[in-house]
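Ligand-bound model needed. fe (ii) ion.
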Amino acid sequence: MWYFCSPRKIAFGEEALEALREVHAKKALVVTDTTLLQLGTIQPVLDLLKEEDIPFVIFSAIQPEPAIPPSREGAKLAEQEDVDLIIAVGGGSVIDGAKAIWVFYENPDLDIAEVFPEDPLVLRQKAGFVAIPTTSGTGSDANWAIVIKNPETKQKLSLAHRELIPDLAIVDPQFTKALPLSLTAATAFDALTHAIEAFTVEWRNDFSDGLALQALKLIFEFLPQVMADKDNMVAREKLHNAATMAGLAFGNSQIGGVHALAHSLGAVLSLPHAQVVAVVLPHMMRYCLSEPIIEQRYAEIAYTLQLVNTLDAKGAHTLIDKIEEFRKSFDLKTKLSDFGVTKSLLEEKMPLIIEFALNDTGSLVNPKELNKEIIRTLCYTMF
Amino acid sequence: MVVNFPSKEWLIKYQEALNGEAGKAWQEAAKDWEGDFLFVIEADDKLEKDLTFYIDLWHGECRRVEFIEDPAKAPQTEFQYRGKYSNWVDLIHGKIDPIKGILMRKFKLVGNKAKVLRAAKAAQELVNTAQKIESVFL
Ligand SMILES: NC(=O)c1ccc[n+]([C@@H]2O[C@H](COP(=O)([O-])OP(=O)(O)OC[C@H]3O[C@@H](n4cnc5c(N)ncnc54)[C@H](O)[C@@H]3O)[C@@H](O)[C@H]2O)c1
Ligand SMILES: [Fe+2]
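Prediction:
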């Protein structure tokens, strides 16, 4: 027995923001970050709230790769202002930070690390939750996860609870119009990785398989089009849909070893999630390739994407080569040293990197078992 | 030597495995672990009555085990992991992992779950070590 869970409603495509008019609220907390505030990305949301006579307050202190303390501050503001709706407008960092605000607002004394899927979690007593992604990457708008840093242990916690799935996801491509190409490529690589891991980890299932394959088709077709013309809004729309579909896929299956290692490297070396995922992806795929079922699954992806004409092992290799080719053509980082990480720093931090990576749920469900030596070898290969 | 699961002999073999060569990966992963468990194997159509394993795990060592036939006599422990006999068999055969088991409602974990999640690798190695015991099932 397994479940498929998703937001009650996903509004997508041009003018999807209009769906926000259906939401009734006395007062809203709009959660974002300073960059998006300055760029004016959130303005259409504010305009609509004004038109609908919904008063709002803005909380913009969520930082990229969010940590717990700002979310506690956001919850205090929600309490002071007595809001009954939280609207997250931003990338995965903002959406995750806003989900944590929601948890603290409704459960002020909870240690967020204790959020666990099968335990009760009180939400929606005080506020509903709308997510409006501005990157085509994490899929946090449609799934049950929060990735948040605990500043005390420095670990990136991956928490999950079905109650944390937003009530409404608004997947409107207008919010990605100003997303720089470098971030477009990196966050799309995150989405691509979600789909590949959802399709291959131990918790894969029929529902997530379908979403993962379609998400991959969209990314392979439309990411190059966006990279060739950043104003191609038709292609941006498809990419945006793909990210949410990949989010639904891994939210109902799991992420795997790529994310386990990327979460760990990201937390220990302070590296941005999407970019470090792009570094790890082909290395972890090559490592998993010796599992016959995984070779088959990669081959199935390659065949579906029409990278090869026959469904055989060759496709698995073609897929990984193609991913590396993409990564290069979009100028993404390919090595840890590209981030300025030195060998001595890597060596010094290795025990912590190993500990965090192996204890991430992604490692537990990775299609091929990971251990200390493998993580170490992968890190040096990626250096 | 082949042993029956669940039995006192199996539990003793398990302790030996955890502390020996077969448990090397667990010892490493659990080097900071502190906390004792009750593994409750609940009766189903194959197992007549509930059986309980008491397992004291401390810094990569399995310090003590106890086979408890009367659940009323089970000591208070920091954690409890419980599920039906057939689910334990699936777990030991690697058909489900210890966390998926909880999400599928085949197992219940009582105790500080955040602490167990932070030691996910150790939990996985506890199962991997159990797989190395030559077992006969009911
Ligand atoms: N909850 C989940 O399911 C999940 C899944 C994967 C990753 N994550 C987490 O999400 C975070 C990363 O999120 P992300 O990759 O979306 O990036 P992000 O939210 O950290 O944003 C990166 C940068 O891009 C800027 N930005 C965002 N949208 C923009 C736009 N439209 N125009 C211009 N600039 C824009 C942001 O202000 C920020 O400076 C990490 O913490 C990661 O661990 C969560
Ligand atoms: Fe990700």
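The domain at 9-176 of chain A is CATH 3.40.50.1970 (Rossmann fold).
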